[in-house]
Amino acid sequence: MSSSASQPELKRVEDLWFPDASLILRAENSLFRVHSSILAARSSVFRDMITFPQPRQPEGGEADMVDGCIVVRLHDSATEVEVFFKAIFDSSFFERAPVPVDFSALIGVLRLSHKYDVQYLFRRALSHLDSMYPTSLQTLQDILTGETYPHVYSSCQWEITEHMGALRAASEVGASWLLPAVYYRITSTFSMELADGRLSIADVQRCLTAQTAFVRATTESHAFLRLLPAPTCRTPMRCRTAVSAAYGMLDEWSSDQEDCNPLSSWVFYCTGLPCDTCTEMAKSSFSAVQERFWARLPSIFGLAEWEELKKMETAIMESAA
């Protein structure tokens, strides 16, 4: 390859360097030698890129060459290009849900499959994200309580950094139906990390504003404690003791982030109510508050209603089929 003293050292990505291939692509300082016919079959964007002749270099200039092949530059991160190409050229690298995938690889495949129009990978990536950020209240609550876990993503620690990455990626590719659950996870685990530049100013403001609604809904969800014991309770003394213990835990956890998590069920389950009548009354009141909150969750963040978001999901997933 033509070089100069100021040129960075280029690295061949061994797992994606096929000696019999004729197409060499560069992302940052990484080189990928891959089969153009396979890329063209998977991606309309690469098909057009390969079909069009490469532009000539200015007179007197030299084209970037490796092993007699012109090097085509991609304006993407080398890390994302690597996982994207692995998903294309290694069928076992990025499989359908529920097979586990690496979270950072998931985001890279999502972004580049959308950019380069690789529909089957785009749909596959969205399906993985659907399991993490559902449009169903029950599904999200099962995740929050640990009753179900969306595939063991090897690098996902369910921290705010992952949620912020999912927010950026989902917004970029137009997967708006994922956003209510993503915003919920960020807002309910708020920290000053929101202000460190990893979210836009608009998103920071959106999450900060939403916290008021979150606190109100959380407080309202605890209102079932005031209804107890039920008029027909058979063990009023024991139920009063359980309620008193629950209030004690609320005071103890007053500064904890759970206090801004209206869909959490920890208060309800920690009461340990001994009476079936009180349990059913509490559950009915508790669930009603959470269902009302879930119904208006998209509007809290300035998004379309759930019905519209679900229609959008259907349209995009069907168009990617």
UniProtKB/TrEMBL annotation:
InterPro entries: BTB/POZ_dom, SKP1/BTB/POZ_sf. Pfam families: BTB. Residues 19-91 form the BTB domain. CDD domains: BTB_POZ_ZBTB_KLHL-like. It comes from the Eukaryota. This is BTB domain-containing protein.
